[in-house]
Amino acid sequence: MAPLFPPLITGHRLKTGQSPLRKAAAGARKGKFGAGDLLWVEANDTLEYAIILEPTVSRKKALDMVFTMMVALGDAIGALAPPEVAVTYTWPNRIRANGADIGRVEAILSDEDDADGAPRFLVVSPIIAVRPQSDDLDPGLDKDRTTLWDEGCGELTVVDLIDSSARHFMTWLNTWEEDGFTPVLS
To answer: Which of the residues 13, 27, 40, 65 could staple to 49 if both were Cys, CB 3.0 to 4.6 A apart?
Structure first.
């Protein structure tokens, strides 16, 4: 089943084993992908996608999108998970559930700038552990790492999380454009 993306996002399914972050950055460099293209991998255990943005701000401001994506993921998880799942963030790019790591947000910024001095593109990529990767792991053995499944989100699917986080990200991106970074940090 494919995610239902909000307007302004065009989804591109990748084969298992491909890196959405690397593929998106390579495609953006070649002009194959642009703003709003979202590359995702269909998997049962890990959410992994990359969205391409074309910033109109400085490199430093563009990197606000890493934390903006983290907040969007927190909202998406909060909307789908049981209320006892507490989502927190560890600077600069880690996401935690009930005190343990569940993932991170990575980014690749274009080496080239446009005529106004803004980077040609920014690729933002969340990676979240939705389910354990092996059936023989005992939850809780590594107190610093967990999955959403281990935290009580047994019904949550990767596609659900892609749907929700893409929508929340677009909302937070709009908030950031209208009101700046302060609301994202609140």
So the answer is: 40
Q: What is the pTM of this model?
A: 0.94
pLDDT digits (tens, 9 = 90+) for 39-94: 999 888 999 999 999 999 999 999 999 999 999 999 999 999 999 999 999 989 99
Q: Which two tokens stand for residue 96?
A: 């935690």
Q: What's the pLDDT tens digit per position in 107-132?
A: 999 999 999 999 999 999 999 999 99
Question: DSSP string spanning the chain?
Answer: ----PPTT-EEEEE-TT--HHHHHHHHHHHTSS-TTEEEEE--SSEEEEEEEE--SS-HHHHTHHHHHHHHHHHHHHHHHS-TT--EEEETTTEEEETTEEEEEEEEEE-SSB-TTS-BS-EEEEEEEE-S-S-TTPPTTSSTTB--TTTTT-TT--HHHHHHHHHHHHHHHHHHHHHH-SHHHH-
